[in-house]
Write a structure and sequence with these properties.
The structure holds 2 protein chains of 2 kinds.
Chain A lengths: L3 E10 L2 E11 L4 E5 L6 H8 L7 E6 L2 E2 L4 H7 E4 L11 H11 L8 H11 L12 H13 L5 E4 L8 H16 L3 E6 L10 E6 L2 E6 L1 H6 L4 E8 L1 H10 L3 E7 L2 E6 L5 H10 L3 E7 L4 H8 L7
Parallel strand pairs in A: 3-8, 3-9, 6-7, 7-8
Antiparallel strand pairs in A: 1-2, 1-4, 4-5, 9-10, 11-13, 11-14, 12-13
Helix pairs in contact in A: 3-5, 4-5
Chain B lengths: L3 E12 L2 E12 L3 E6 L5 H8 L7 E6 L2 E2 L4 H7 E5 L10 H11 L4 H15 L14 H13 L5 E5 L7 H16 L3 E5 L3 H4 L4 E6 L2 E6 L1 H7 L5 H14 L1
Parallel strand pairs in B: 3-8, 3-9, 6-7, 7-8
Antiparallel strand pairs in B: 1-2, 1-4, 4-5, 9-10
Helix pairs in contact in B: 4-5, 5-6
The chains are: A alpha/beta, B alpha/beta.
């Protein structure tokens, strides 16, 4: 049996369907990512796995324990970092860590080696109140608190949300190291560029899974042909490209825009077409799709075009 | 000469002995989309608060829409629109009540509110839901609506603080198209984001590191200057450099 299983789980809040009969499983030792925007249902699913919420229908298990009936056993083996900071802002850094150690029946020293790498980055501020910490530091403390009882399974709900790009990179390096120590990790994120850092991902939207697989297999499923187009001025370039018959859809993508077509197109001819309508600095080249391109395709396109 | 709508000169803000904003200088031209990036705690929010007339300066000066932020903060507030991801609209008011409230705050007449508000809802395709509570709308709709509301009094500059956080990839791009449209019609856009691909959508960007502004240029030229493939790489190089010191 898989390390984590979710079978036909449904959860509603009044007339909002947060999880719509969702099924997925995660294997031991995997770094598994749920990727999707706010409102996709990620936090609801995580709360069910963390045994703090009960599904309306279906069932979920963690290490063969049922999340409803065997919640006590699951709570011993899980390290859960909720989406909003779970720390006490009126306690100091060290007091928070002590608190979490104690409720898990341990102390800071017993598994200190386990959190050393992360905690030592914030240890110089151990007497500071958590309310006065920066976002990146809070995130490191929250992870330390989730790890202090040496769990077998880490459940991290949007640990990098609102955190700057550098702190995000550091955080993912920590996750990789924890994974190499044998931990099973489930993480959620709204940042599509973090998908490639996971072993497998689930793309999530409106309580359903759009796709579940290795990131490279998901991008390989992109059905159409993708070009990156640059031109100045940019907004007019986008409007022009969108007006073409060949265009299935076109949308901004970083410094360029992405053009999706059903069949290969003559890029030289399209370049000329843009230039003749007064657009300068035109380049068009075929590019490989990213997770975000596939996500947009699975969401059913863009502007209906 | 190009019209500069934000002029920042040697701006400083101290909190006790801590220098949150450390002598920064830059300007933003009319109709420009200016991306303002930085690590958590780099001084972005403090700078934004000074530019929007909400926080006094410790040194230097800034003019926004022709008004001095220190001596004429009320005039500054009237000339700008502001929207943040954390708080943009009142969840327990309806769509229309929010429009009326914000328009009223900015001193629009009833006639202007009726006409402007209706036109805006039609354009967004939200006419049918004008009586719904904001709290019941999907995040993407809320953010698009909040942006339009911030533009209702036709400000010269609109400040957007992480407007697309947590929004799905399609809505995020539709939001940016609204930004392009506003900029094309002459509104200046000052925007912060943690999505590095969005930094590439900007005409120019400034990157704050530890209170200073070590990078200020177009995304293309910054990538050249820092020999990087993306703004993300530029950003990481700048912050790591600083950490080494």
């Amino acid at each position: 049996m898989s390390f984590v299983t979710v079978e036909n789980v449904r959860k509603t809040f009044e007339d909002v369907v947060a999880l719509d009969r969702l099924s997925v499983s995660v294997e031991k030792g995997e770094l598994f990512g749920f990727i999707g925007p706010d409102g996709a249902g990620k936090s609801t699913l995580f709360r069910i796995l963390a045994t703090v919420m009960v599904p309306d229908e279906g069932k979920a298990t963690v290490m063969n324990y049922d999340t409803v009936h065997d919640y006590r056993q699951i709570r011993q083996v899980i390290g859960y970092m909720p989406g909003h900071f779970s720390l006490y802002t009126d306690l100091s850094v060290e007091e928070n860590l002590q608190f979490f150690a104690r409720i898990y029946g341990t102390n800071i020293e017993e598994y200190y080696d386990w959190i050393k790498d992360i905690y030592e980055q914030i240890a110089p501020f151990k007497d500071r109140l958590v309310g006065d910490l920066s976002g990146g530091m809070k995130q490191k403390l929250a992870l330390s608190c989730a790890l202090i009882h040496k769990p077998a399974f880490l459940l991290l709900d949007e640990p990098t949300f609102g955190v700057d790009a550098v702190s995000r990179r550091e955080f993912w390096e920590v996750l990789k190291r924890l994974k190499s120590e044998g931990l099973t990790i489930i993480v959620s994120t709204p940042y599509m560029d973090e998908a490639s850092l996971c072993d497998r991902i689930a793309l999530m939207q409106e309580g359903q899974l759009l796709a579940v697989d290795q990131p490279e297999i998901i991008t390989a499923q992109f059905e159409n042909i993708l070009y990156a187009v640059a031109g100045s001025p940019r907004y007019r370039t986008l409007q022009q490209v969108r007006s073409w018959d060949e265009t299935l859809r076109a949308y901004p993508f970083g410094e360029r825009l992405h053009l999706v077509t059903k069949n290969p197109v003559d890029t030289g001819q399209l370049k000329q077409r843009l230039e003749s309508s007064g657009i300068s600095e035109v380049t068009i080249e075929s590019v490989a799709p990213t997770i975000e391109d596939e996500f947009i395709a699975l969401m059913g396109g863009y502007h209906g075009k | 000469m190009e019209n500069k709508v934000i002029i920042v000169e040697d701006l400083v803000r101290m909190f006790g002995s801590f220098t949150a904003v450390d002598h920064i200088t830059f300007d933003v031209k009319q109709g420009e989309i200016f991306g303002f990036l930085g690590a958590n705690g780099a001084g972005k929010t403090t700078t934004m608060k000074m530019l929007t007339g909400l926080l006094s300066l410790s040194g230097g000066g800034a003019k926004v829409a022709g008004h001095d932020v220190q001596t004429e903060p009320e005039k500054v507030k009237k000339s700008i629109g502001y929207m943040s991801q954390k708080f943009a609209l009142y969840d327990d008011l309806s769509v229309w009540e929010n429009i009326r409230f914000y328009s009223g705050v900015y001193g629009l007449t009833d006639k202007e509110i009726q006409e402007g508000g209706r036109a805006m809802l039609d354009k967004l395709g939200l006419g049918d839901v004008h009586n719904q509570l904001i709290g019941a709308l999907p995040l993407g709709w809320k953010q698009k609506l909040a942006f339009s509301v911030a533009l209702l009094h036709q400000p010269e500059i609109v400040f957007l603080d992480e407007p697309t956080s947590g929004v799905d990839p399609v809505t995020r791009r539709q939001f940016w198209e609204m930004i392009y449209e506003a900029a094309e019609s002459g509104t200046t856009v000052f925007v912060t984001t943690h999505y590095m691909d969005e930094a590439e959508y900007c005409d120019r960007i400034g990157i704050m590191v530890a209170g200073k502004l070590p990078a200020l240029d177009t995304p293309a030229r910054l990538k050249q200057q820092f020999k990087s493939k993306s703004v993300d790489e530029v950003f990481v190089k700048l912050v790591r450099d600083r950490q080494k010191k």
